[in-house]
Amino acid sequence: MRLISLAVITAALIACTGGSPAEGQAGQPQGKYQAGAQAPTSDAKPFQVTPVADFEAPWAMTFLPDRRMLVTEKAGQLMLVSADGRGRTQVAGIPAVDSAGQGGLMDVVLHPDFARSGLVYFSYSEAGPGGKGVVLSRGRLVEANGQARLDEVQKLIEATPYVQGDGHYSGRIAFASDNRHLFFTMGERQKFTPAQDPKSTLGKVLRLTHDGKPAPGNPLAAKGFHPAVWSYGHRNLLGIAFDAQGNLWEQEMGPKGGDEVNLILPGRNYGYPIVSDGDHYDGRPIPDHDTRPEFEKYKVNWTPVISPGGLMIYSGNLFPQWRGDAFIGGLWSQALVRVDLNGTNAAKGGQWDMGARIREVEEGPDGAIYVLEDGGRGSQGRLLRLTPVGR
């Protein structure tokens, strides 16, 4: 493992614990690297960028069947936005959100049968007994007289336990390819050991019913784990998505180094904080993954880090050369990152400098790639539409 300078350690500590909206906020990368090393990026983009709309610290988005969008803003606003980005309505009915540090209103995903049910699933951080935690809720989108609201809002599942601090909530949502189950991520809240605690939901991927109950047949329930746990040993899981073959992919921030893309398999332990290809922020080394082969290893790893935010697997027609590949937003790296997926294998693809922190990546109904700037470190919080050059 390489030695880190004191200045780099200090910058990384500020990025992680200083109350900023996301890790990677500091001016230096939070990773094991030699002085002056930079993540490889390209200024030559194989797409053109069209601004669509501006937001206040946006976090996630999803498309409605009519091509309008729901966009979450960190402070707790859910915005219903016209397809061209020019019109917007704030959706009422969102519960109180604790937006300190890395907290806020986070992911938003439609129920697979949204056209009939109108159900919208969303995640957020809240204060409660013992501290703070991430929550998965849902409500029914209702529109009337130019207004929009979520009715019948229900809290489906909350973190176990609530703890002190404002970091590593995670809160990403994905419905399984067969639409039978719902997957939800909970970060380890910068507490390290809960990721290995069988009774805790922290540092885990959860498999749930559509009503937020632990799904029957979860692989670790009979071994004394919380019955919702699908996989464990994770850190800060900020992207989760299924590919066309039904494989579940996840990305998470490593500590000082070691950002990961993982293939999520039932019942597997991904090793954190026992192993990581990064080190602790105070300089203490963590054994690398290769030293403990009993833990499930990442498929792709970044040191220097990219500070990943958001994960999308492309299936559209505008970029046929990328169909089936994963796209990740880069926070510290201010990049759009592509990962080649090939069955259950993955490899690094392209990485393009976007000039702003990218929090979210989504595929639009038109096959374009949409990215959200998170608004930190001078970025404008814009929604950008990426299309092939000349289209």
TrEMBL record:
<protein>
    <submittedName>
        <fullName>Dehydrogenase</fullName>
    </submittedName>
</protein>
<dbReference type="InterPro" id="IPR012938">
    <property type="entry name" value="Glc/Sorbosone_DH"/>
</dbReference>
<dbReference type="Pfam" id="PF07995">
    <property type="entry name" value="GSDH"/>
</dbReference>
<feature type="signal peptide">
    <location>
        <begin position="1"/>
        <end position="22"/>
    </location>
</feature>
<keyword id="KW-0732">Signal</keyword>
<feature type="region of interest" description="Disordered">
    <location>
        <begin position="21"/>
        <end position="41"/>
    </location>
</feature>
<dbReference type="InterPro" id="IPR011041">
    <property type="entry name" value="Quinoprot_gluc/sorb_DH_b-prop"/>
</dbReference>
<feature type="domain" description="Glucose/Sorbosone dehydrogenase">
    <location>
        <begin position="55"/>
        <end position="379"/>
    </location>
</feature>
<dbReference type="InterPro" id="IPR011042">
    <property type="entry name" value="6-blade_b-propeller_TolB-like"/>
</dbReference>
